[in-house]
Hints:
globular, 3 domains
Amino acid sequence: MTHLDATRESYEAMPYERLVHRFTHPDRIALAVRRHGFEPVPAAGARVLELGCASGDNLVGMAYGLPSARFVGVDFSARQIGAGRRLVEALGIRNVSLVAGDLGDVDEGWGAFDYVLAHGVLSWVPEPVRRRVFEVCGERLSERGAAFVSWNALPGWRFRHLVRDVLRAGAGGAREPGERARLARERLALVAASVVDPAGPWGRYLAERGAELADESDADLLHDYLEEENEAFSLGDVVARAGAAGLDYLCDAQEPFVPPETWSPEVRRVLEGLRGEVEREELLDVLRERTLRQGLFVRAGAKRGPREVPAAEEGLELASVPLSRGAPLSPRPRASALARLQAADGPRVTSFRHRNVTLDPLATAVLLLLDGTRTVEEVAGECGEPEFVAEAVVERLRADALLEA
Ligand SMILES: C[S@@+](CC[C@H](N)C(=O)[O-])C[C@H]1O[C@@H](n2cnc3c(N)ncnc32)[C@H](O)[C@@H]1O
């Protein structure tokens, strides 16, 4: 079996967690890109491609809030794509299409895209696919396009690789995903409890990671730690790879991560002495023990204007997605149809702010009843709660951007 087959089989056997990633939203990318003097295509009418989109939840969340934009996702796990297509069909939206296939096969027939996204892909695929991720970004980006690519960062993942080695040794040759996760957890618990020097750095690190992993799902453990492929990169390495595909690195999608004034005068002096932005960022990654980077890229030589300093409030909300906050509450409130479909399946739903929101059982019950046909008083009656309690839950749903505008 090739590494590619092993990756595919793993996601077919246990799908990835169904999540949205807020820094991949074209509104947020556009804001960051404008700060660097580029003029991105407005999110509301953009064409967006996501590579390795799993079940497409990230794209569906965007597509639901941006009905005039077009979204295409590709993932080679037919099981995950099938689940995504069922969600799209139930929602009745027509601006997103999910394709079961190899991202390496994305060619000119797919057209050009204003935003190309690859979240959680680069570190978990074999080298040839890694190369294709940047090639596809370079080939498919429109003139004013921007690409988002995230990766496991150094040095933070260097430590995690030590834990990964323990977990993988524990999983041994087991094939069934649940069994692999169980054996891996068992081994980590044994090692953490029996390490010769529990107070030393290794003992403390194992105990800390063990406690964190206890809260993570089997799917997270399996894909984040046990995959055949798991590579971490420095920023300089990724910038060079992107450059080879005709892309310029712009910034991290989450910047500013830590304001420079936070660093001591000694650190600032060293930073000022370094040659360029990449070297400075790499030193900061070491100081932060950074584990994740979410890079933004544009076509090499893309037209650049003066840097724009955004208004302070910009970026707090998504510019193109209407929110219900501030407007008077409708007499018969209606929750997002996407969130209602998701809530029927589990507690985690997608908000209009492109965030993952986890609902408690009462919030789930209320949200499911908010289909625009009931007053809050009627919702309270059906839930067996006093009206003031239902009102408070509805207000919270509104604050979480889960109600239609
Ligand atoms: C770690 S998951 C990330 C999923 C999603 N982007 C996220 O961040 O939530 C990696 C995804 O990439 C997909 N993938 C890996 N190699 C691929 C390839 N060559 N072509 C298409 N999809 C691929 C896997 O099936 C999986 O769904």
